[in-house]
Write a structure and sequence with these properties.
By secondary structure, the chain is of the alpha/beta class. The protein has one domain (25-154): Glutaredoxin (3-Layer(aba) Sandwich). The chain contains six helices and six strands, in the order αβαβαβαβαββα. Strands 1-4-3-2-5-6 form a six-stranded mixed β-sheet. A hairpin with a 5-residue loop joins β5 and β6 (133-138). The protein starts with a helix and ends with a helix. The relative contact order is 0.19.
Amino acid sequence: MKIFRPLLFCVMLSVLSVPSCFGQANIQTVSSQDIVKAVTQAKGKVVLINFWASWCGPCREEIPALIELRKRIPEDKLLILGISLDADPADVASFTAKAGFNYPVYKAADDVPQAFSIQAIPRTVVYSPTGEMVESTEGAISPEDLERLIARAMGS
């Protein structure tokens, strides 16, 4: 019985972790309205939306800083959304499985680039806890600048 409990605990942990692995394999497509709704529903939180693509070198370099940010700042204070502009959902799923995202990742619907005036990626848009856009940046952001941007949006 003493051996059974630790074994059962390990099995339960592995089963509980499976959905997060599988969740990224089935990438959901979001429209511009879905994104706006997410920002609206996140009142009281800073919202960071990162538009990227798996084939974009600067995007790939920026993602680890976003993953680290998610580890340090709790979800009740910061909502991070990754919105891929890849054409093929399989490319998004493959990349997300390898990259170890710890925040939600979606594939952009066709209306998203125009609705958010995306001319280049990566593109990061930050909203204050009141839902006001406080930053929109094209190009990679250094981890230090990202930290300052979020601190400013949080009012720190």
